[in-house]
Amino acid sequence: MTGANYMLDNGQTKILVDCGLFQGKKYAEDMNYESFKYDPSNIDFILITHSHIDHIGRLPKLYKDGFRGKVYATTATRDLMAVNLPDSFNRLAEEAKDMGHPPLFEQSDLEGMLSLVEGVEYDEPIGIDRSDLKITFHDAGHILGSSIIEVDWLDSGSFKKIFFSGDLGNPPTPLLRPTEFIENADYLVIESAYGDRIHEAREQRKVKLIRTVKDTIERKGVLMIPTFALERTQELLYELNGIFAKKEIPSVPVFIDSPLATKLTEVYKKHSEYFNKKTAYLMDSGEDIFKFPQLKTTHSVEESKAINEVPQPKIIIAGSGMSHGGRIVHHELRYLSDPNSTILFVGYQVDGSLGRHIQRGDKEVTVLGKKVPVRCHVENISSYSSHADQKGLLFWVEKANSNASLKKVFVVQGEEVASKTLAYLIREKLNVEAVAPFNQESFDI
Question: Residue 244: CA atoms inside 13 Å, Cβ hemisphere, count?
Answer without folding.
Answer: 18
